[in-house]
Design brief:
The protein folds into 2 domains: about 5-100 and about 245-440, 3-Layer(aba) Sandwich (Beta-lactamase), CATH 3.40.710; about 120-240, Methane Monooxygenase Hydroxylase, Chain G, domain 1, CATH 1.20.58.710. With about 450 residues, the protein is an alpha+beta fold. The protein has 11 helices and 18 strands. A hairpin with a 5-residue loop joins strand 7 and strand 8 (about 285).
C-alpha cells in the first residue's frame, strides 16, 4: 500500500469544506428490526451515479436515504460493504460518521441549554478550569529556507473561550492534521487525539490537556475547524454528571428511536460495519488494514477492535450510525425539535443552531455561513447547487454527508466509507441529481 500524502489529506479537508450542499415512525427500542428499504421517489440519475461508480471500481458501495413531507421517500443501497468478502451493501449498514458526530454532540449540549444549565457566553473555564487564562501562539516573521517560521512567542489571548465560541468553531482550537508550525507538534507531544483513533482513557483526560495548550488564534477572531465538539462533549459530561455515551443514549438516541448509533458497536452488530477504503493511484480502491496508523500526523484506527477499551467518547468524531438513524435525527431538526410526539429541543433552539451565528465575522464560502454545528445557506449559491436559502448541512471525514432543506421539507443522507475522498466526488453528484430530479 502506498502511503497517503499530506496533500491528499488536505484535499480531503478542503472537499469537506466546499461540497456540503453535499421518516415519521413511532419511537422504537434499540433492537427493533430495520424496515426494508423503500423507493417511492424515482431518482434514476442517483441510481446511475452509484451503479456506474461501483461498476468502475471507484467506490465500493453506499447508501442514500431521503425524507420529504414527513415520509421516507427514497432509500437505496449500492455495491458492497466489504468488496473483498463479497458482502453486499444493505440499507441498515453501519458507517463510521466521524465529524457528523459533532451536530449530535452539540444537540446534547443544547438540551442542557434548554434546561438552563449554562449561558452561551459563559467562559469554558467556569466548567473546565484548565481553559483559564488562554494563550495564543504567535509565529515569528523570520522564515527558514522552506518558508516556515523559525520561532514563536506565546501571548495572552484577548478573551477566554466561551461556549458560544466552541459551538461556532471560533475558539482557536485546531486539529493535529492541519500541521500548523509548532502548534501541531505541541498537540502531538501532549497526546491530543483527533477522535479518529481507538485509545484508553477518557475524552475528559484529553480535554484537560488541550485546555493548557496555546490557541491557534484569539477566540472569536476567525472560523476554523478544530476539537471544539470534543470539548462540548466533555462539557455535557460535566454539566449532566453522566458520560457522553450514556447521556446521548438517554436524551437523543432512545427518544428518537436511533437504535444503531454507538461509540462502540455491539458484537452482535459488528458484521454490519462497512469497511473503509482508500483510492490507489490508478483510481481503484484498497481496504485499510484494521490497525491504528499514523498518516502524516493523523492517527487513525479504521476499525475499532470490539475487544479494546471502550471509555473514550469523542464528541467530534467518534460515532457509528446508519442512514436510517441519522435521518431520524435530521427529521427531528426539520420538525424544529420534535419527532413522533417526543420533543428533544425547543423550536427556538433549533432556529439558533441552524442559522448564521457568526455575526460580522467573514466567512469565505459564497452563500454559506455557520450555525452551531452546521453550514447554513443564507444567500443563493452562485454555482450549480439548487438548495434553498435556509438549508443546512455537514459532512464526515470518511465520505458521509447530509443536507436539510426546510423550504422543501426535505432531508437526505449519503453514506460511503472512503478516505481520502479521491476522484469520485459522490456527495456532490448526489446533491446535484437529487435537486435535478425533484425540482420542476
Amino acid at each position: 500500500m502506498k502511503p497517503l500524502t499530506k496533500t491528499a489529506i488536505l484535499l480531503t479537508l478542503m472537499f469537506l469544506l466546499v461540497t456540503q450542499f453535499s421518516c415519521k415512525q413511532q419511537p422504537s427500542s434499540r433492537n427493533k428490526k430495520s424496515p426494508a428499504p423503500v423507493a417511492d421517489v424515482n431518482l434514476p440519475s442517483v441510481d446511475s451515479v452509484f451503479n456506474e461508480s461501483v461498476n468502475t471500481g471507484h467506490v465500493a458501495g453506499g447508501v442514500v436515504m431521503m425524507s420529504q413531507n414527513q415520509k421516507t421517500t427514497y432509500w437505496k443501497s449500492f455495491g458492497y460493504s466489504d468488496k473483498e468478502a463479497g458482502r453486499p451493501m444493505t440499507g441498515d449498514a453501519i458507517f463510521r460518521i466521524t465529524f457528523m458526530t459533532a451536530p449530535i454532540t452539540n444537540t446534547a449540549l443544547m438540551i442542557l441549554y434548554d434546561e438552563g444549565k449554562f449561558s452561551l457566553d459563559d467562559p469554558v473555564s467556569k466548567y473546565i478550569p484548565e481553559f483559564k487564562d488562554p494563550r495564543v501562539l504567535k509565529l515569528s516573521d523570520e522564515l527558514d529556507t522552506n518558508g516556515i517560521p523559525v520561532s514563536y512567542t506565546l501571548e495572552p489571548a484577548t478573551s477566554e473561550i466561551s461556549i458560544r465560541h466552541l459551538l461556532t468553531q471560533t475558539s482557536g482550537l485546531t486539529y493535529t492534521f492541519y500541521n500548523h508550525p509548532f502548534l501541531s507538534d505541541m498537540y502531538r507531544q501532549a497526546g491530543i487525539s483527533n477522535g479518529l483513533d481507538q485509545r484508553q482513557g477518557t475524552v475528559g483526560d484529553m480535554v484537560k490537556k488541550l485546555g493548557k495548550l496555546p490557541l491557534h488564534f484569539n477566540p472569536g477572531e476567525k472560523w476554523h475547524i478544530g476539537l471544539n465538539a470534543d470539548v462540548v462533549g466533555y462539557l455535557v459530561e460535566v454539566l449532566s454528571g453522566q458520560s457522553l455515551e450514556v447521556y446521548l443514549d438517554q436524551h437523543v438516541f432512545q427518544p428518537l428511536g436511533m437504535k444503531d448509533t454507538y461509540f462502540y458497536v455491539p458484537d452482535e452488530k459488528w458484521n454490519r460495519i462497512v469497511s473503509l477504503y482508500r483510492p490507489q493511484e490508478d483510481g481503484s480502491l484498497i481496504k485499510y488494514p484494521p490497525s491504528t496508523q499514523d498518516i502524516h500526523g493523523m492517527i487513525l484506527t479504521p476499525s475499532f477492535d470490539p475487544r479494546g477499551p471502550k471509555t473514550y467518547f469523542s464528541g467530534g468524531a467518534g460515532l457509528y450510525s446508519t442512514a436510517a438513524d441519522y435521518s431520524r435525527f435530521l427529521q427531528m431538526l426539520l420538525n424544529r425539535g420534535e419527532l413522533d410526539g417526543t420533543r428533544v429541543l425547543t423550536s427556538e433552539t433549533v432556529q439558533l443552531m441552524t442559522t448564521n451565528q457568526l455575526g460580522e465575522l467573514v466567512f469565505d464560502m459564497p452563500g454559506l455561513a455557520y450555525g452551531f454545528g452546521f453550514y447554513v445557506q443564507d444567500q443563493p449559491i452562485p454555482v450549480a447547487k439548487a438548495s434553498s436559502i435556509g438549508s443546512y448541512s455537514w459532512s464526515g471525514m470518511f465520505n458521509t454527508s447530509f443536507l436539510v432543506d426546510p423550504a422543501m421539507n426535505m432531508c437526505y443522507v449519503v453514506m460511503c466509507q472512503h478516505f481520502p475522498i479521491g476522484q469520485f466526488e459522490v456527495r456532490e453528484k448526489v446533491d446535484t441529481q437529487i435537486y435535478r430530479n425533484l425540482l420542476p
